Amino acid sequence: MTINNKVVQVKLELANNLYCFMNTDKTIAIGDIVVCDTARGLSVGNVVAFTEEGSYKQKRATKYIIQKVNMADHFLRLEQAKRVKEIEATLEAKKKEFVDTRLLDLVIEQNPSLGALVAELNALKKGV
């Protein structure tokens, strides 16, 4: 249920009471998280109800809901940040693997007798 230009009852995060705020957003619905202009500054709360036309609660509302909080965009940013970390970790592991392999190749190139030790080590690792 959404109502435009009506008074909305909001349960603020750090309060026990319901507070009434004027609403001009057509998309606000019960359960939405909203930012409200309160006597103590900006507060976040959940929309819990809409008031009836002519209700005494409509007269109590003197401040507005500023905006609805877009949680979908927030969750998308969190997922993107998680994916960035995964990609960076994969690239770092591949880089380390490449550097280690290349370094070992260079060492063997300088000292061919180490090639037999590396082959033996790899065989032992496969058997474990």
List the helices and strands and how they pair.
Layout: E1 7-12, E2 18-22, E3 33-38, E4 41-50, H1 56-60, E5 65-68, H2 71-110, H3 113-127
Antiparallel strand pairs: 1-2, 1-4, 3-4, 3-5
Q: Which short descriptors sum up this protein?
A:
alpha+beta, 3 helices, single chain, five-stranded antiparallel beta sheet, 47% helix, 2 domains, 128 residues
Strand order of the largest sheet: 2-1-4-3-5
What percent of residues adopt helix (DSSP H or I)?
40-55%
- H/E element string? EEEEHEHH
Distance between the termini: 63 Å
Bulk shape: rod-shaped
Please compute the radius of gyration using only Cα atoms. Answer: 31 Å
β-strand amount: 15-25%
Low-confidence stretches: none
Could you say which structural class the secondary elements and strand pairing correspond to?
alpha+beta
Largest sheet: 5 strands, antiparallel
Number of domains: 2
* Count of individual beta strands: 5
Average of the residue pLDDT scores? 86
Helices, by number, come to 3
What is this structure, in a nutshell?
With 128 residues, the chain is an alpha+beta fold.
Please give a structural write-up.
The chain has a 5-stranded antiparallel sheet. It is of the alpha+beta class. β3 and β4 form a beta hairpin. The model has no long low-confidence stretch (mean pLDDT 86). The protein folds into 2 domains: 63 residues, no CATH class; 49 residues. The chain contains 3 helices and 5 strands. It starts with 6 loop residues before the first strand and ends with a helix. It is 47% helix and 24% strand.
